[in-house]
Design goal:
Order of helices and strands: HHH
Helix content: over 70%
Low-confidence stretches: 14-18
Number of strands: 0
Largest sheet: none
Number of domains: 1
Radius of gyration: 33 Å
Oligomer: single chain
Length: 94
């Protein structure tokens, strides 16, 4: 069975593919380098996110403790009107 004839455009496409294949190792190295840079950046961002999450939890706990002290102070016998800080904390956390 005779081989099908290829049009000039198809032949040019094959030539381009062969030429691109010759440059493939360089592109693979560039792609690996880019992928490694992206991976390093993502890992750095993950660490930063974890650090900020821990800091935020510490701050949340501090505010919760302050609010609890305000509540206890307001509920104790003979306590005066809660301070402005306590009122503000109630508004923020409400």
């Amino acid at each position: 069975m005779p081989a099908p004839e290829q049009s000039p455009a198809t032949e040019e496409g094959l030539l381009l593919t062969v030429r691109e294949g010759a440059q493939l190792p360089d592109r693979n190295m560039e792609a690996d380098s880019t992928a490694n840079n992206i991976l390093a950046s993502v890992k750095e961002q993950e660490l930063q996110f974890e650090r900020l999450t821990r800091e935020l939890e510490v701050e949340r706990q501090i505010v919760a403790n302050q609010l609890e002290r305000c509540r206890l102070g307001a509920e104790s016998p003979g306590a005066s009107t809660p301070s402005i800080l306590c009122s503000l904390l109630r508004c923020i956390l409400a």
